[in-house]
């Protein structure tokens, strides 16, 4: 398993924001939290590969949005925020060493944070950053490899994975106010604590689920279900609308 990551920009405070108020960001503290996050990925078995720093790109640390990576190929996205579209080339250059590439092109837009993979199914949130043309192009790129793609409406959040993430083998952690659990009929939905609406963004590696320390009630609910939880401090990064999935691109071994 390989994790592609990028260092935090010193301009993180200039990040794009939606659905939340801007707050002062301590970039040095965010960098330390990111370093600890990357170390956690390594301890859970991921080999770490750093993408080139992009100090002029405030959102560059959020590498998940720049590609959708599957065992067979990688789809280089076209982020919905114009300020982020220059981030994708360095991701594409790195991924050429690991996967064949396809690309989303104008007028399509697609953020990787809107793409939730469950087995051979990909659910894609129709957000302010991802449009139907982007979903159509993703579907066309993946159809030859046997993946199904389904567009989903969502409300009140930045990305689909702000509202729901996959807990293998058959559960979802979900905020039902942002996405309707009924659109996932074959999976058991675990709802976030009502006082922690942003807690649904978790990252599961090697049977362990990273959960932000900001959401202790949701973490305890997961533990009560027998899920191994890895508390992860990312509260400074949350001010830039970071989640645990968005700061890495996870490449599973081919054939996974």
In short:
This protein is an alpha/beta fold. 21% of the residues lie in helices and 24% in strands.
Number of strands: 15
Strand content: 15-25%
Derived structural class? alpha/beta
The backbone outline, from C-alpha atoms, is: globular
Low-confidence stretches: none
pLDDT averaged residue by residue: 96
CATH class: Alpha Beta
Strand order, largest beta sheet: 2-1-15
CATH architectural group: 5-stranded Propeller
The total count of helices amounts to: 6
- For the report, how would you describe the main beta sheet? 3 strands, mixed
Instruction: Report the end-to-end length measured between terminal Cα atoms.
Output: 10 Å
CATH fold title: L-arginine/glycine Amidinotransferase, Chain A
Rg result: 17 Å
CATH superfamily: L-arginine/glycine Amidinotransferase, Chain A
Total discrete domains: 1
| Order of SSEs | EHEEEHEEEHEHEEEEEHEHE
Q: Which range best describes the helical content: under 10%, 10-25%, 25-40%, 40-55%, 55-70% or over 70%?
A: 10-25%
Question: Overview of this structure, please?
Answer:
The protein has helices at 27-43, 88-95, 132-142, 160-163, 216-224, 235-238; strands at residues 2-5, 47-50, 67-69, 74-76, 101-103, 115-118, 121-126, 148-153, 164-167, 171-174, 188-191, 203-205, 208-212, 228-232, 249-251. With 256 residues, the protein is of the alpha/beta class. It has a single domain (2-251), classed as 5-stranded Propeller (L-arginine/glycine Amidinotransferase, Chain A). The chain has a 3-stranded mixed sheet, with helices on one face. A 3-stranded mixed sheet has the order 3-4-5, sandwiched between helices.
